[in-house]
Each structure stands twice: as C-alpha cells, then as structure tokens.
Specification:
By secondary structure, the chain is an all-alpha fold. The protein is built from five helices and no strands. Helix 1 (10-32) packs antiparallel against helix 3 (48-85) and helix 1 (10-32) runs antiparallel to helix 5.
C-alpha cells in the first residue's frame, strides 16, 4: 500500500453512496417490506381464493426470507461503504476487483431480476446499479487522469 494519502474522489463518493443505498435497501427488507406486494400477487397470478388459502402461511415464510435477505443486503452495504472509505480511495486494484464482483452479484443481479420480472421497482433498482457502475467507470477515469498505477 502507498503511503500517499488519497482524498475523496468521485469514484469513492459514488461507491460510498452505493453502500449507503444498499444499507437502506437492507433496512427496507428488514423493517418495512410487507410479505406480499401487489406486484408479487400479479406475478404469481393467484386468484383471491388461492391467495386466501396460502396467503397467511406464505406471508410468515416470506417474513423470514426477507429478514435474512435484508441482513445480507445491509451487510453488503456496510462492506461496500467500508471499501469506499479505505482501499478504493487508495486506488487499489484488488479493491476495484472486489467492487466489480460484489456490485455485479448484489445490486446488479437484483436490478436484472427485477427487470426480468417486470417489477414496479425495476427503474429504481436499475438507477441504484448505475450509481455503482458509475463508481467503477470513475475509478478507471481517475487512474488514467492522474496517470497513477493502481495499488495492489
């Protein structure tokens, strides 16, 4: 690692914002999201009788699923924010690789699936994924602009 101190670049700010967004999304799943949204019922194409039959059991199950998912999304956000505040600011190539992989398999995949299922939230999640992608693009531009090779 270099001893030179790096300030808050656009890439670090954008990645930090991505982390804060993921923490917020995780909090939504932990504390606010109901078990079934109107879009869930539309997607499953359930009749009112079918929903009445399985709804309560499904709701209890989904509450557990969304609590676990919310915790993982929030943890990913905390780690993303930590990465933005440390190694990403120092232009570490390992941090860049970690940010790319984590972004693709977290918010990137969440956005892609929500587009595939035509979710009501697809554009919001796509916007979140684009903020993450902008942090990666800004990182590359900063490395070229400052003519500094990334740190390992």
């Amino acid at each position: 690692m270099r001893s030179k101190e790096f300030g808050w670049s656009a890439s670090s700010i954008l990645l930090g914002l991505s982390g804060i967004i993921l923490i917020s999304v995780g909090g939504y799943f932990l504390f606010l999201r109901p078990a079934l949204l109107p879009e869930d019922i539309r997607y499953m194409n359930l009749t009112p009788v079918e929903l009445e039959s399985i709804g309560p059991r499904l709701a209890r199950w989904l509450a557990h699923v969304f609590n676990v998912m919310g915790g993982y999304v929030m943890a990913t956000g905390v780690l993303t924010l930590t990465l933005a505040m440390t190694a990403f600011r120092q232009r570490s190539t390992l941090a860049l690789a970690g940010a790319i992989v984590a972004g693709v398999v977290s918010i990137g995949w969440m956005a892609a699936v929500n587009v595939m299922i035509n979710s009501d939230f697809k554009w919001v999640l796509l916007g979140f994924a684009l903020i993450w992608a902008a942090s990666i693009a800004a990182f590359a531009a900063e490395v070229r602009r400052f003519d500094t090779s990334p740190v390992c």
